[in-house]
Design goal:
- There is one protein chain.
- The chain is mainly alpha-helical.
- The chain has a domain at about 40-145.
- Helices cover about 65% and strands about 0% of the residues.
- The protein has helices at about 10-30, 35-40, 50-65, 75-130, 135-140, 150-155.
- The chain is elongated and about 90 Å long.
- The chain starts with 10 loop residues before the first helix and ends in a 6-residue tail after the last helix.
Length: about 160
Amino acid sequence: MNNLNTELIPADVLAGALAKIRAARADLAPYLHPLTPQQRQDLPKMGDKSLAFVTKVAEYAQSLPALMPSYLDAAGLATDAATSTALLPIYLETDALALDLDSTRMVAGSEGYAAALIGYGALQGAAKDNQPGAQAAVAELAPRFARPTKAAKAPAPAA
């Protein structure tokens, strides 16, 4: 198996990147609208094709106001279209960054876990051979692999 994660990211690089992300988030905070998972689910969704549609209708609402219903907030529609358009490049960049960060964490975690399993196996072998410190190490690590007993899995009897 190839080891892809072979170099630590320097602490100053991580700290600098985190500071820049926090600064960008702080810059945008007054304009952002965090939603609960339920609110996100309930909203109508707008994809790439819909963005072009919304932008075009916003243009028509400005250029042909007599054809729009009086209850349509044309200025609000224009703001929504402009905000969606303006945020798209930032969203695409941060989404790609988030995917790369998650992928790198996944690689490092997978490689680390595989290596740790090899180390744990070596400690188990050493414990069987009564090597000093091995039993204590295995005893500390063993709960990670503890399986619930049948009694723990079974539902409690109804009273």
